[in-house]
Amino acid sequence: MRQLKHHEKKLLKKVNLDEWNSKREQLVCTKYLLHDRNTYVKYNIIVGKIRKLTESLARLNYTTTNISNIRNTTNDKNNKNSSTNNTANNIVIKEYIGKKLINKLYDMGIIEEKKLSECLKITVSDFCKRRLPIVIAHKKMVENYKDADKFVQHGHIKVGTEVVSDPSILISKSAEEYIKWKEGSKIKRKLDEIHGDVDDFEYL
Hints:
- This protein has 204 residues and is mainly α.
- It is built from 9 helices and 3 strands, in the order ααααααααβββα.
């Protein structure tokens, strides 16, 4: 690591990084109703690992040479050019791991575009936004995160055929359409009454 310049040292004297991290953590925990600090720590560790993996993939050599030709080259026993083999191996690794990482994060709704560069922008908040109560609020099933969190814990929400009472569950993009109210939920009936959408047959 390089030595800090004089002006950088002066700036650092005025910044308490531990205090900043603590405030950031409190802000995220409060906004997304994280009941346990360990949840924030867990998300933070995952984000760090994703960024580290992404940076490692970005450093791998890449070329615009046709990948299929390169793969054939790696299988050619007569090829003795080690640099070509290394480049080919790097491309295969980058393609395979990169695609799996990107597709997984995209399907989870953590990133909006299928680009490796998007993985470097991931924050703890991106994981928090995929928590069940937050997704429910974004779907306008309830008005705010606090109510959504409470209704989940009280067993009023189903994902597919299962009642989910754990607010920490992460919802993928494909699972969003399967979120619904539990049959006979008093909260759902109350909300329907408020909006004038009561269907008595539904609550028989």
